[in-house]
# Entry
Amino acid sequence: MTEILNVYNLKKTFPARGGGLGFGRAEVRAVDDVSFAVESGETLAIVGESGCGKSTLGRLILRLDRPASGEVWLDGARIDNMPVPQLRRLRQQMQAVFQDPMSSLDPRMRVLDIIAEPLVNFGLLKSRKAVERRVGELLDMVGLPADARHRYPHEFSGGQRQRIGIARALAPSPRLIVCDEAVSALDVSVKAQIVNSLADLQRELGLALLFISHDIGVVEHLSTRVAVMYLGVFVEIADRRSLFSDPRHPYTRALLASTPAFEPKDRGKAVPLRGEPPSPTDIPSGCRLRTRCPHAFERCATETPALRPVSPTHAVACHLDELPTLS
Amino acid sequence: MSGGVETVSRDIGFAPVSDAAPAPASVAARRRRPISWELVVGGGLLIVVALLALAAPLITPIDPRALALDDRLLPPGPAHPFGTDGLGRDVLSRVLYGGRVSLGVGLAAASLSALFGAALGVVAPVIRWLDTLVMRIVDGIMSIPSILLAIALVAVAGASVRNVVIAVTVVEAPRIARIIRSETLSLRGRAYIDAAVTAGSSTWKIIWRHLLPGVAAQLTVQTAFVWAAAMMIEAGLSFIGAGTPPTTPSWGNIMADGRALWQIRPNLIFIPAAFLSVSLVGVNLLGEGLRKALNPRGART
Amino acid sequence: MSAPLLEVDDLRTSFRTASGPAPAVRGLSFAVNAGETLAIVGESGSGKSVTALSILGLLNARAADVSGRVRLQGKDILGLGEPALRAMRGAAIGMVFQEPMASLNPVLTIGFQVGEAIRLHRKLGARAVREQSEALLRQVGIAAPARVLRLYPHQLSGGMCQRVMIAIAVACDPALLIADEPTTALDVTVQAQILALIRSLQARSQSGVLLITHDLGVVAELADRVIIMYAGRKVEEAEVETIFARPRHPYTRGLLAARPRLGVSSESVPSRLVEIPGSPPPAGADPPGCAFLKRCPVAITVCSQARPPLVRVADGHVAACHRLEPACA
# Structure
């Protein structure tokens, strides 16, 4: 299993709008030293709530934004500082499915042209006929009728549009697909279809998926490994089974515990995390969670915990985990 | 491309967001109503005036520049349906041929403004440094009242039809540039632009394939309005003698010639003014009709 | 048993579009009692939000036709004129909508908006209004209410804004609270807090709550009774435990089965989510048979010919499906 994506110490900051009192411009540290790798054939899910920086991370990986520092390596080539013409060719290996089915397809283009765009750009097929045939195959792969080719996006429902987006992402046969909240805007019944489709396609084609989402339930179904993100950093990263059966970080536990009841008899058991997430311009010193963590102690304010492995496939960034008495 | 416009279909087959909206647009795919009365009336008026201007030789055999010093200031009659002016020239003929200039200058200036304005407006947001530069220049030009700027340009370059077109273009292109730039900015943030980047499209390809078609509707509408403004500026320039040279008739300079004599022969001013007004109303209604046809009401997808 | 707080009888709402009338709600009837939470569940196009807007009289009369009977505390409210409706909204009925940031006026302080909610229905001096506003904010769990009153909506997080919305909604002790997707736009940790808040407020005031949502988790947390809507009609109604334990309509079953379950990662075989094929129908479509036909795993011939009526399956449990087994009791 080769590593298709490698990310080292990625950082991205934005100037805050109107934030920060007094002198100096406040900054939002959207992504603050994140490192990870994705192997081909696996799904790495990045879970977090709004403002945690996961979408920014996705954009940095896709090079829709440039990182402030750090490195992104795709298939053995460093892409974060690669010149644009070279990068463009490499993009064939890394495609994306976006969140909003309404705005992720150009309303003025026919489905055929939308899906064919990467094929044309990367010069993958020689004749128009070959392109049309491939588009037909892709539509079939995502479960859309062949006559969809000549229609416009507005003639399709949200779930169908997402399928068109998936077909477009699959068109150049990439090795990695970044899904940025790809199912969040869909109805419950349609969400299940798309999640299943993604899982099937990944299995058939051996793709690597980077699945960014706030929906823990979907993540549990789809992922091989999960990284939990809070205010710009990974607080825990583990294989799926470990994370869900043995969550170590208090934030992960809170996320899992906050999920609403599955059945009425479980109501009221959700344990809300205390307080509000701190303002992203005013991140607490030391561990970011300490203002809301029920177990915070002195060291949490002075020293930022680093991601430390507690098993070969499970790493946590929490001082509690280093205490010898913690089970 | 028949799909060159956006239709509103607030597709409700997907989002778990509130599926209601106060506007009916969210409930079913809306059929656009492309033919509004503005489009019909405006287009009709323009076509009538344009046909009259183009058919001038068929309507009157009299040369608009032919002097007839014995027939000066005749009232409307069978030989001269609109009378003659101070130099004996047939007013009908002058007004019809003048229409070619006024409408033509307007259309030419509008087209050039659209070309330059769109080029600047679409490219500027994509290339950052160009954006600041262009917008400051645009701001500078727009801070000068259009007529004054046009006068100044013509004064420098000399009065001729070509220079009037150039002057009006310089004055109006910035306005279009600004509007198109703002449309482009809003389109650029859409996910499908990110998707195009991810799909490997180059910047120019994105401009050509995605951004330009996206602003085409707004551009068409604005061009119509610029056509109206251009006609007015040309008429104004010609009226004060800084526009179309007096040898070539245009509505503006016909009115200028008739200014001193309007108490005796009011038709010398009112007839070209009437033609100008009808044309302006036509173009403005056409612009409004185009706006309704090309920009659906309600939320854009 | 006392009369229901809210009675809706054969509500029909249809939008006037360029291509003809588009019905969004087709004959919905239900009741909400004081002290209970009724959840209306549905996906896009089900008509659930339109129902709330119709009850509140918030639909533009030129755009929508609303008919039927809606009675609040015995009084007919559907035919009321705008002044009477305005007096009702905020006083007798409190409303909480989905997007907290968008529901608050961005150029007015929180204090002004909460105060306005109080001032519209009660005659109080400025100091009394401020004190009540602070008390309200404290009641919804905002610490340091005096400071928050001076802030503007953009300075608050989504969760805080939603708390403010709830404070405004309950400012005048309404008998009925209508909440349309109150937590959909919120993070899950904040959602847990807001759900707990709604539950405690209701317990204290014994108001009725009409909860509109697509999220069965929220239903499990809050609802006493549940109505499932599909394509503008009610397809099932029951107490919440019954809906989760013994759903009868195929759509209800499909919705329940399509939920990702926590704990699936401990199973050895990767599991698929149960799908409902197809998508919710666009509003306006009205096939002769059952609207769920194209997506139903158990459809039979009669389903394409006749729309199934709502039949009583058990006490307090109705469903509209041709494939229901005959009720045993």
User: Anything to note?
Assistant: The first helix of chain B runs from residue 37 to 54. Chain B has ten helices and no strands.
